[in-house]
Amino acid sequence: MDVRVYEVGPRDGLQNEAQIVPTEVKIGLIERLADAGLRWIEASSFVNPKWIPQLADAGDVLAGLRQRPEVTYSALVPNMRGLQRAREAGLREVAVFMSASESHNRKNINKSITETLPVLAEVVGEASACGMRVRGYLSTVFGCPYEGKVDLNRTLSVAEALLSMGVYELSIGDTIGVATPKQVREVFSALVKEFTTERLAAHFHDTRGTGLANVTAALDEGIRTFDSSIGGMGGCPYAPGAAGNISTEDLVYMLTGMGYDTGVDQQKLAEAGRYIQQQLGRQLPSRVLKAHCADAGVPLQRREQA
Ligand code: HMG
Ligand code: MG
């Protein structure tokens, strides 16, 4: 495998859906993603269910899954309560998250950046002590919905704090999808110099249509792990206007055409996309999914069997 695709649709995608998707549909989606060869799947979030009611059933989703040994399932945890719930669900990997900009951090997790760091350090320390791997997310690196431009030095210092806590990899987030390839090159070349490509991933949202162009820019900087969401679902409810992540179907199509092996079966991936599209009852943004449905003559209908 040349490029690692980290599937975040069941979490980043479904957290932003207006409707609450039934638990068995979430499980059906995750099983289909694993069938397609995805080996890293962010299955849900152990956050405060009052803040993200769409994922309040995280424990039931993980309990209902046939957790396969070849797949790493993960979930967001914001604090020790979240870590405890993730442990009870049998997870071996979790992800902590915070923002490079003060205002988004406050809106999203109700704390300043300075207050957040010790909370996450405790989570990472405890998770590592019980043998779990911890991934990190740094949001709003390319722009903040409340503050606009974000200082690169701020990004570097928060990234340093998270990586030195012991997160094995830090996913660099364009939360509201404002980045363009030039900025992606600037940000990743600075990060790679400090932390090396092995400890970095890219998390692009495609709000303004620059998502895949940004992937090629990050590839040029040596990045080989990309987060994406089936169908291109997604967004952060605490970042107004944020649209979906880059779509997994589009990402895998492009990478395969560029000669990168992702280990993902495109036909089975299309089946996973069709499944969740039909369950949601609306056309999802993925271009490859759209083309697949047109080629297969599939109309968009409500509700297929789960
Ligand atoms: P808070 O209200 O400040 O928390 O929320 P608190 O510690 O004061 O606790 C308040 C109540 O919540 C207590 O219950 C706690 O037990 C409960 P009470 O005593 O009142 O009955 N509570 C919890 N319950 C279940 N699980 C928990 C938990 N924690 C507290 N883990 C908190 C602080 C961080 C918890 C809250 O702000 C929160 O849950 N925020 C999550 C927001 C979120 O999930 N945003 C979307 C994900 S981030 C994203 O999408 C960006 C990303 O994709 C990257 C990118 O695109 O850039 C990752
Ligand atoms: Mg996101």
Explain briefly what this protein structure is.
With 306 residues, this protein is an alpha/beta fold. The chain is built from twelve helices and eight strands.
Give a topology summary:
Elements lengths: L3 E4 L1 H5 L9 H13 L4 E6 L12 H7 L7 E5 L3 H9 L4 E7 L2 H8 L3 H17 L3 E7 L12 H14 L3 E6 L6 H15 L4 E5 L6 H10 L4 E4 L19 H10 L8 H15 L6 H10 L10
Parallel strand pairs: 1-2, 1-8, 2-3, 4-5, 5-6, 6-7, 7-8
Helix pairs in contact: 2-3, 2-11, 6-7, 7-8, 8-9, 10-11
Mean pLDDT: 95
Our count of helices gives 12
Order of helices and strands: EHHEHEHEHHEHEHEHEHHH
The structure class reads: alpha/beta
CATH superfamily heading:
Aldolase class I
Structure description:
An eight-stranded parallel β-sheet has the order 3-2-1-8-7-6-5-4. It is of the alpha/beta class. The relative contact order is 0.15. β5 (133-139), α7 (152-165) and β6 form a beta-alpha-beta unit. It has one domain: TIM Barrel. The longest helix is centred in the middle third of the chain and has 17 residues, at 113-129. The radius of gyration is 18 Å and the shape is globular. It has twelve helices and eight strands. Helices cover 43% and strands 14% of the residues.
Attribute tags:
single chain, alpha/beta, binds 3-hydroxy-3-methylglutaryl-coenzyme A, 12 helices, 306 residues, eight-stranded parallel β-sheet
